[in-house]
Amino acid sequence: MFDILSVVGPIFIAVVFIFVIGIFIFVITSAIKQRNKNNNSPKLSIPVQVVTKRSDTWGGSGDSSASTSYFVTFQVESGDRIELQLSGQEYGMIAEDDLGILTFQGTRFVSFERKH
Fold first, then answer.
1. Under a CB-based contact definition with an 8 Å cutoff, are residues 74 and 99 in contact?
2. Cys-Cys crosslink for 48: which of 10, 52, 74, 88, Cβ 3.0 to 4.6 Å?
3. Full-model pTM
């Protein structure tokens, strides 16, 4: 019984290690592909209405600090909706039902200029 564990144990640890490294490489590769896709997309400026805002908070248990992501959903004149991630400062400057010009590039938020 001890001989089986001494053979299977290191193999199991190696498989788990390779799996974790594979996931890490996949996440990094996906982020690079999305960044390149955004960089190669045209910058568009379109009239929109802010439909909704939401935030997603994770972490913060024990000694770790919490992190928050901010999202705003914009609706274009045709009724289509676009949800983009914004910084906390940008998020705070936008209110639901605001009308304005959204500038974005691919899935990257560039700016929102409110109509007065």
1. no
2. 74
3. 0.77
